[in-house]
Prior knowledge:
Layout: E1 2-7, H1 13-26, E2 31-35, H2 50-56, E3 61-64, E4 69-72, H3 80-88, E5 94-98, E6 107-110, E7 125-129, E8 139-140, H4 145-157
Parallel strand pairs: 1-5, 1-6, 2-5, 6-7, 7-8
Antiparallel strand pairs: 3-4
Amino acid sequence: MIISFVGTSDSGKTTLLTKVIPILVERGLKVAVVKHHSHGDFEIDKEGKDSWKLYQAGADVVISSPVKMAFIKRATNDDLDEIYERYLKGDYDLVLTEGFNKAGKDRIVIVRDPKDIEYFKHGKILAVVCDEKVEGYTWFRRDEVEKIAEFIIKLVKS
Length: 158
């Protein structure tokens, strides 16, 4: 299952995810997050390090240790379905995205102003997180983290 957390810039998507994920994991779900970075290139490696040098030389690089792994691969696109199929499918109970609004996946919309919901109707809106009451949707306040997590767990288990 994929659920996208979408919302306006600085709406609190990352903050909400960092509060909901530990609850989901504690309840036994294996969770992955795909973070959309729409501003072009980004670095997860430090300039001058061996893995950085290998990537600069033209290779895709896997950095592996006994506790964590990273795969630095040149992307031909940032298609969420392709990412899911190639890297995540079958390994996780739940894949959450931060962003990927245009991918059209089922979503939880996080906004400060209820009028902003209109920008996020590219997929099925499962719920809205906003400190103001929002009519017509399943609605949570930002501080209702446990309720949001329970809502997601019910979706995964249904």
